[in-house]
Design a protein that fits this description.
It is built from 13 helices and eight strands. By secondary structure, the protein is α+β, with helices and mostly antiparallel strands.
Length: 381
């Protein structure tokens, strides 16, 4: 197994309070994610990476999410962003991974921001970047999770030189960007999803690709590099929340075990409490099954528009299930769950923040599924 999270999870648990206060991971914790194999998991084998499976990545992120959803969030995104970078031209991949596949990559992809202008003057471009082909990129991008500890960052922008208004991804060294401390949130506080600003900078053509390139089918590619982005995008946000939900259920049992009602009976024995625990556990379990089945489809199944839509649907519905479970547990835990240092309350905040990500929006997922479904005569799945 290429991903090992036991030591990282233990470290994340000890740094929970520090991570919340700092609103970002410590350098030690970020390095531990690299040691666990997240940064290299989807890096092509040519550059020393694992070209690993989606199922394995999600299982590791969910396991880490039981210790810290914020840590797992950064871990999952460091892995996912390396997969996106694998679609850069060969020279771009060499720039990133020539020395090591253990390169942490942050990203701000959706919505596209900034401005990108094609470098029409070979002389000017050559002076700026040592090559005659490239783009001038500048602007402000928000919510770049884990950017403070990244080595590179992928920035998405509309390319003004493309006639069809193509969205392009640009790989930029982290040191070329200014990071502003703007991440002040209720949930996922420790992800350090700060704002990135870039002055007018030349980006060589080999460090850019289009959003449409993600998941392009080419002979000889590993499976993880031949799956459409949309088919797996939701997993990187869902898996950390799933792990947090699993631990939230344990936290709830521990929190309510000695709670006594006014009549002297144990609160945990009340029918309403038992119902809450049973329903929440079923919702969390069902979400895990949906995630696993969707990723098995991505790892092994036939890639069709219907399969992509089913995965998007399943990720979004699983997010609704775990959000409902977290709500149920917090309500059933009583006043003690409202304490600022209550672990259940923290996990509820993290789950709610993760479930609100645009990639897990069920309305959009439902629209995609409706467009991709086969004729009504076929049995619905």
């Amino acid at each position: 197994m290429s991903l090992t999270v036991t030591q990282t999870a233990a470290l994340a648990r000890t740094q929970t309070a520090e991570t919340e206060r700092a609103r970002m991971l410590s350098s030690h914790l970020a390095d531990s994610l690299t040691d666990a194999g997240f940064a290299r998991h989807f890096v092509p084998k040519l550059w020393g990476g694992e070209a690993g499976s989606f199922t394995e990545a999600a299982e590791a992120a969910a396991e880490l999410g039981e210790a810290s959803a914020a840590t797992a969030w950064c871990a999952a995104l460091y892995a996912a962003h390396a997969r996106l970078a694998a679609y850069l031209p060969e020279q771009g991949r060499q720039d990133l991974w020539e020395r090591t596949p253990d390169v942490r990559i942050a990203a701000s992809v959706m919505p596209p921001a900034g401005t990108a202008e094609e470098a029409h003057s070979p002389q000017t471009a050559a002076q700026a970047g040592g090559t005659a082909e490239g783009w001038w990129l500048e602007g402000t991008w928000h919510h770049a999770s884990g950017v403070d500890h990244a080595h590179w960052i992928l920035l998405a922008s509309w390319a003004s030189g493309d006639t069809d208004r193509t969205v392009r991804l640009f790989a930029v060294p982290r040191d070329a960007c200014e990071v502003s401390d703007t991440w002040h949130t209720l949930g996922l506080r420790g992800t350090g999803s700060n704002t990135v600003r870039l002055e007018r900078t030349f980006v060589p053509a080999h460090r850019t690709c289009t959003l449409a390139d993600l998941g392009r089918l080419e002979p000889g590619l590993d499976r993880c590099h031949s799956v459409p982005y949309q088919m797996v995008a939701g997993a990187q946000f869902l898996a950390p929340a799933l792990g947090a939900a699993r631990q939230a259920l344990r936290d709830w049992h521990e929190l309510t075990a000695d709670r006594i009602r006014l009549d002297g009976s144990r609160a945990a024995d009340a029918p309403a409490q038992r119902d809450a625990a049973a329903r929440a556990s079923a919702e969390i379990h069902a979400a895990g099954l949906l995630l696993n089945h969707a990723l098995q489809r991505a790892d092994l199944g036939e890639i069709t528009p219907r399969a992509v839509a089913e995965n998007v649907r399943d990720f979004a519905f699983a997010a609704e299930l775990i959000a409902a479970a977290a709500d149920r547990l917090v309500r059933a835990a009583g006043l003690r769950a409202q304490a600022e240092d209550c672990s259940l309350q923290r996990r509820w905040r993290d789950i709610r923040a993760a479930a609100g990500h645009a990639a897990l929006d069920f309305e959009a997922a439902g629209n995609l599924y409706a467009q991709a479904r086969t004729p009504m005569s076929e049995t619905a799945r």
